[in-house]
Amino acid sequence: MDFTITDHEFYQYRTFLQKKVGINLGDNKKPLLIARLSKRLRHYKIDTFKNYFDRTMDKTYPDEEQIMIDLLTTNETYFFREAHHFDYLKNEVLSKHKPRQGFRVWSAASSTGEEAYSIAMLLAEHLGLKGWEIVGSDVSTRVLNTAKQGKYIMDRIDGIPQHHLKKYCLKGFGSEEGKLLIDKSLRNNTSFKQVNLNNQLPDIGLFDVIFLRNVLIYFDQETKRKIVKRVLSFLKPGGVFFIGHSETLKGVNESVQIVAPTIYKRADE
User: Fold this and answer.
1) Is 266 an active-site residue?
2) Is there a contact between 136 and 189 (Cβ–Cβ < 8 Å)?
């Protein structure tokens, strides 16, 4: 069965998503919404998007709202994405200034975990297997479940340098053939939790480095300002802040200084 969505129905979803997680769905996202939610309509044998929206708001289906959010949030990522950020972390942060014990990194839109584990490989190389911590967060419980497992299909690992691949990744055999597991030594230092950046943030402590990449593009300007202000309140003095290659803090936040394209630093206090 092919589904269509009316302007009013699309407005319902767009308004809800904007209010709940801050993401602004443009009119060009109608096909994406239809494609991603159609299977839920089929699952419930529902014939309109209005009826499905009503179902997600129905408290007798407590998990459906989160399922809908998971399906509508985009989670594209891969290992060592935007390599110049990892080069900066390695050469300007980890190599030049030996970090103290308790070095902490927040992957604030971690999706399925590739970003967090890419960071973990660098930290393990330069700091050893103790004295550091990575916190990954995302609004989607679906992608966080993948991140917590640390298990990926082999065609997702092209970005991992060969020496990291041999040292920190375990190749699956038998029923796990075609898959790769991040070594437990890295998973032990990496945790994942659900965080909605559009709400008041939980007390997760301060960080030396924060990655907030390829997520600001989904928010309007005012929402960007609020989210960046919230996130930066967790960055230590002298800490480094990374955003995506197509993003900027111009007109969004002036509390950190740009040190390289899409790389910012908080002044030492």
Assistant:
1) no
2) no
Residue 174: which pLDDT band, with cuts at 50, 70 and 90? confident
Residues 104, 43, single domain; the answer is no
> What's the farthest any 2 CA atoms get from each other in the chain?
61
User: Which of 138, 187, 208, 213 is flagged as catalytic?
Assistant: 138
Q: What is the pLDDT of residues 16-70, one digit of tens each?
A: 999 988 888 888 889 989 999 999 999 999 999 999 999 999 989 989 999 999 8
Token pair for 246? 């197509």
Question: Could you confirm whether 142 is annotated as catalytic?
Answer: no
Q: Is position 232 within any domain?
A: yes
Q: Which two tokens stand for residue 241?
A: 């802040």
- 60 and 94 share one domain: no
Statement to judge: residues 115 and 218 lie in one domain:
yes
Structure tokens at 101: 């014990």
Choosing from 36, 40, 156, 266, the catalytic residue is 36
Q: Which amino acid is at 107?
A: S
- For residues 23-43, one letter each, b for 16 or more C-beta atoms within 10 angstroms of the residue's C-beta and e for the rest, the string is bebeeebbeebbebbbebbee
Nearest to 111 by CA among 192, 38, 45, 12: 192
Assess contact for 14 and 5: CB atoms under 8 A. Answer: no
Compute the distance between CA of residue 253 and CA of residue 269 in angstroms, rounded to an integer: 18
* Predicted pLDDT of residue 1: 67
Is residue 2, in this structure, part of any structural domain at all? Answer: no
* Domain stops at, among 41, 72, 103: 72
